[in-house]
Amino acid sequence: MSQNRKILVTGHAGFIGSHLTRKLLNLGFIVAGVDNYNDYYDPKIKQANVDTFRRRPNFQEFRLDILERLKLEACLKAVKPAIIIHLAARAGVRPSLKNPQLYHQVNVIGTKNLLKLAKTFEVNQFIFASSSSVYGNQTKVPFNENDVLDKPASPYAETKLAGEKLCRESGLPTTVLRFFTVYGPGGRPDMAPYLFTKAISAGRPIVRYGNGTSKRDYTYIDDIVSGIIAAIGKAWPFEIINLGNNHPVSLSDFI
After folding, report:
1. CA-to-CA distance for 100 and 152, rounded, in angstroms?
2. I want to staple 170 with a disulfide (CB 3.0 to 4.6 A). Which of 115, 181, 244, 249 is the partner?
3. Residue 77, exposed/middle/buried by CB under 10 A (0-12, 13-18, 19+)?
4. What is the pTM of this model?
5. Rounded distance, CA 194 to CA 190, Å?
6. Which domains does the chain have, with CATH numbers?
């Protein structure tokens, strides 16, 4: 198989990462996964995600933290990927309020490490997972990729904006994908769809924040994966793409 079929996926054991990795393997790509199985939620969930493709012959796993620059360098030297899809990050708006320094370390410094190494090893394309959180509390809709974003509403959003800036300044052909609230099988246990479903199944009342009027573009995981795959090979100098549903749903209607 040709060299340009080699893809490095960071955060491959997570919700989006595991769905993406499985699809890439099915399409015949050679995939190397990087994940540190952190404690943001039960690592056993990630283990179960990866168990569905761990033994595939075109898959290789590297357990390391993107802050471990030397280990990350050894990984890229061994893999020699044509494309990097960078999903690894500390996720969640609320947790970022409690530990902004950790979010900066992982989401900004970790991304900087990866970008520098991607340039050193002459990676053809860098795909960066950003978030709709970067739009903050702005009321102008629909959100546009060219909107001026100077008021992030959380440390998490700040780190994603910083990551986008690093990508822009790297000189690498980079595609930034801003994900909008992703849901589906194997979803993160801290996300509303999972929490609401769990409460309903247990016969417990649903805990919600706010008055229920807030709206989100809930986007199914298969659509996110399709969008990421569609971006592969599009070696634009720098491009930002909103990747999500275009029908906002209020929290009350969602429940």
Report:
1. 13
2. 115
3. exposed
4. 0.90
5. 7
6. 3-186+218-248 (3.40.50.720)
Place of tokens 């592969």: 232
- Residue 2: pLDDT over 50: no
* Torsion sign (Cα): 202, 215, 23, 170: negative
In the predicted model, is pLDDT for residue 225 greater than 70?
A: yes
Active site residue 40: no
User: SS3 breakdown of the chain: % helix, strand, coil, rounded to 5?
Assistant: 40, 20, 40
What pLDDT score does 188 carry?
74
Q: How confident is residue 201, by pLDDT bands cut at 50, 70 and 90?
A: confident
Predicted confidence at residue 170, as pLDDT, reads 96
Residue 227: pLDDT band (50, 70, 90) is very high
Is pLDDT above 90 for 69? yes
User: Residue 201, Cα to own-chain centre: how many angstroms?
Assistant: 28
Q: What is the DSSP string of 182-218?
A: EESTT--TTSHHHHHHHHHHHTPPPP-SSSS--EE--
Q: How would you label 179-200 residue by residue, b for 16+ Cβ within 10 Å and e otherwise?
A: bbbbbbebbbeebbebbbeeee
Whole-number Å distance between alpha carbons of 241 and 167? 14
Quick check: 12 and 21 in contact, CB under 8 A?
yes
